[in-house]
Design goal:
Layout lengths: L1 E2 L4 E6 L2 E9 L5 E3 L4 H5 L19 E4 L4 E4 L2 E2 H7 L2 H10 L5 H13 L5 H4 L11 H15 L7 H26 L13 H10 L10 H14 L6 H11 L4 H13 L6 H14 L4 H9 L20 H17 L4 H14 L2 H5 L7 H10 L7 H21 L30
Antiparallel strand pairs: 1-2, 2-3, 3-4, 5-6, 6-7
Helix pairs in contact: 2-9, 3-18, 4-7, 6-7, 6-11, 7-8, 7-18, 9-14, 9-18, 10-11, 10-18, 11-18, 12-15, 12-17, 13-15, 14-17
The protein binds carboxymethyl coenzyme *A.
Amino acid sequence: MSDSKAQLARLEINGRKCEFPVLTGSEGEQSVDIRRLRKETGLTTFDPGFVNTASCQSAITYLDGEKGILRYRGYPVEELIKICNFIDVAYLLIHGVLPNEQVRNDFARLLNRHSMIHESMRTFFDHFPENAHPMAILSAMVVSLSSFYPEMESDQEGVDMAATRLLSKIRTIAAFSYKKSIGEPVVQPSYKLSYCENFLNMMFASPVANYKLDPVVVRALDQLLILHADHEQNCSTSAVRLIGSSGANLYASVSAGICALWGPAHGGANQGVIQMLERLQAEGGDAKKIIDRAKDPNANFRLMGFGHRVYKTYDPRARIAKQLCEEVLGKLGINEPLLDLAMKLEQAALSDEYFIERNLYPNVDFYTGIIFRAMGIPTDMFTVMFAIGRLPGWIANWLEWMSDPAQKIGRPRQLYVGPKKQKVPPRKQGGF
Ligand code: CMC
């Protein structure tokens, strides 16, 4: 059907022939432009899960799922992680270029200037139940920012300021939600500390004890945030774009992205991996048992941290995370039995026919939880860590969507399979 030579795709339906242009991306990827399809043929496309649908053109992140390539603005993630810090990468994603030293330092200082949250907002934390999941708190607090800083609606400067505020305040909100969950008073951010240092200090210092910042932990956090910073049109980023397409503000759109990320098929998998490994440990470490469960179509269980919609080879982020995990644990002198179990489980899965046939490999979430755990981050905060990392990507995608001349409100069609027209039966009036 597709004729790439003429860069046209031909479709014949009920004897009628239509042609659609084939678009080519900067890395040679091709996509049939079906925007005129319904107008010309009355047909829609049926693509549950958007498995075959390119929802936009984007210049932010490139990934090749067959080759295991991930680049932000053209830079391989493996290089960025070695050379840059999270502030560099956040700036790169949002503004399109790597900042020079002066710009990076100014940006970092600007982020510190906006790191406090409004005192009235701080009191919100008092009213969540003790066992509230930090992702619920995070999304509620992020959307609440829109009522404290409504001026972002007005102009480009307002939008830039909203992006800065969000990037800065998310770490404060995240740390405060943890403090709330353990019943401790919050620790305010400090101008003296870097982005990651500030977060760790707000998490682990207390009014009665200082927290000794370990450069190994600080750098590992920086690298983990870079690893999560963007991943093109995944579920949460698509949610951010979709909500934004209705004209909703950045805070509301990102809050929706946080909710999408929370699910166990998406960012919630990092929490799921540790819970799975703990269970494996409690049950005696029999990897085969867990693999058999994951293969059983009736078990309603998947091997967490395995498989990916786009990667049909080893997720490059998982490769980096695995290496980082060994490095960080070694430097911190931690002997983590869950790492041994994870490696055993990975080995067992990668040599199992079921996983081989389906190209199921470890994804980013498989090893990151073990690193977060080594840093002292509690399990139910893992997905919050993913959200802090992914924020620059959400912001960059929201901004790109807003300035895209082809943007339209996101509004898919459906194939209706419900009852045909029927008459409402007579009903007795009155009563409840
Ligand atoms: N364990 C066991 N079987 C699996 C798994 C898994 N983790 N992942 C996919 N499969 C099987 C699935 O049952 C199906 O088998 P069959 O063809 O016999 O029906 C086949 O592989 C294809 O799976 P799919 O559900 O069609 O694939 P998808 O692209 O819709 O789903 C996924 C991708 C990530 C949701 C899925 O692999 C999964 O649920 N993984 C576990 C959760 C997880 O680790 N999520 C984190 C994703 S990476 C971080 C992020 O970006 O959020």
